[in-house]
Amino acid sequence: MKAKQIQGRSLLYLAIEPDDFSPDNPLPLIILLHGFGASMADLASLSMAFKSEGYVFVFPNAPIPIQVGPGLSGYAWTPPRESGSDTEDSEERAEEALDTLFEEVMERYNVEPGNVLLGGFSQGGMMSYRCGLIRPDLFAGLIIMSSRVSSPDAIRDRLPEDRSQPIFVSHGTSDMMIPISGGRDSRDFLEAEGYTFEYHEYPMGHEITQQVLDDMVAWTNNVLPPGGQD
Q1: Mean pLDDT for the chain?
Q2: Nearest to residue 128, comparing CAs of 86, 168, 83, 89?
Q3: CA 219 to CA 223: how far, in whole Å?
Q4: Which residues contact 223 (CB under 8 A, 6 or more apart)?
Q5: How far is CA 121 from the centre of its chain?
Q6: What is the pTM of this model?
């Protein structure tokens, strides 16, 4: 597998693809969004968990630079709460940037709608809920890790009639950043809106453990099997 950093039309992103990849022989695409204060490199190692060269992975960099500590910087999809920014407006702008990215990378890698998974960790999971639930024709499924539905009313009004989109949800029972109550509220939201999904709670904090990876990869192999296996 090889990695390359690409400045897209709306967002910088890290792409990981097989050494011999050619758009003439397209592969399923997995797009993963990092959490608050991290960067596009944060989730890149997850590509190794799939133990397959049957996917192309894209890890976008969130658009807002922030300070996360003395001398430490990162990026966010929406500004910190204390900034006073309107959350809905910020999420709309982030969604617009991601829309442009989705179109760009699907064209670059010659991927058809329905051959893409969207996922994210923490704030990246919030954006995955927002962008993914309303686009079931584009995304074959969603991967949500240690996150929650941040704007249920705004999303509810935009949900499609077809709610058969597969969703994988993981959350730690000891999560101090997004308490398990947030994961359970999101579970209840999905149930109330008629979704069938795979929901897991783990004895962990705000993190991604090997058990999460094992369950996520098994789910992914079923929902969107790796390509290039002929």
Answers
A1: 94
A2: 168
A3: 6
A4: 117, 140, 141, 166, 168
A5: 7
A6: 0.95
